[in-house]
Amino acid sequence: MVAPASWPKLITGILLPGLTLAAIYFMISAGLSLIFGLMDVLNFAHGSLFMLGGYCAWTCNVWLDPNYAGHWPITIASGNLRFIIGLIVGTLVGAAVGSLIEISLIRPLYKRPIYQVLLTLGLVFVFDALVRTIPAWGSLSRAPIKPPMLTESLSLLGRRFPSYSLFLICLSVSLAVLIALVLRRSRIGLTIRAGVQDSAMVEAMGINVRRVFTGVFGFGSGLAALGGAVAASFIGVYPEMGLEYQLFAFIVVVIGGLGSYSGAAAGALLIGLARTFSDHLVLETGLPTAIASASTVLVMAVVLLLKPGGIFNKN
Questions:
Q1: Which of 70, 133, 61, 129 is CA-nearest to residue 90?
Q2: Please, which of 12, 193, 267, 313 could form a disulfide with 255 given CB 3.0 to 4.6 Å?
Q3: Rounded distance, CA 49 to CA 51, Å?
């Protein structure tokens, strides 16, 4: 039994790592939820864009390093600057690839949802093969490279906590607030929501709805890629990360309610804390590690039994 004096340390040991996981889950699931909620497109390749952002950020960190054995013509001595460039490049590449997918593949299939599912499932295998084929990436996992400014640990309620984890939490919260404000208070958000409700009326007002939808898809894809870029310096990169985090993203959006942005935030928080608590329980009691892996599915099952449409389902 845990002594009362140790409770703050125990709570911190579960809460802070749980919030870190929740931050990563939110960044990939928020984009998935936005795309489905605003466009009715269920993108099974969303995790692949998360993976692509991670690999692009990792590549910038490695190739721009003056000590890189490949002798890249452009080098940057500052590890912090390489990290920032990696985040920007990873996000932009993910947004560009997502926009290209929407324009060339998704747009002709808006009225054929089954075809959309089959297409995006096929893209998962395409991206997986692409990552394994590129010599600089390959089939092996790559270790995380943290920026020097975020390598220290901080003391919180008697426990050491990585500053990079705090960065992940702060970034996720900032994005959540910013996106909510854009969707609800800005002209762009109003245009997007109007286009979803009545695209013909918006077109009659001289607004190109197709371009708006491409922007939404690209933004959601870029958000997933940003999640992969920041995760690359936390967990590293590996070819299976797209499928792994795609599964978590679907669990999060199902728990929160398909298409609900607020639900994505709530679901990410719940799953992050549940996974961290189950990991701690397995470590302390010696239970099989499979219990920790199954905890997220168990939470989803309980939520759906109590509220079949998800926590924030409007129906």
A1: 61
A2: 267
A3: 5
| Residue type at 15 in one-letter notation | L
* Confidence band for 132, pLDDT divided at 50, 70 and 90: very high
Q: pLDDT confidence of 70, banded at 50, 70, 90?
A: low
69-73, 158-162, 243-247: least confident range: 69-73
β-pair partners for 159: 156
Give the burial string for 98-129 (b: 16+ CB within 10 Å, else e): bbebbbebbeebeeeeeebeebbeebbeebbe
Domain boundaries, the chain: 13-306
CB 279 within 8 A of CB 88: no
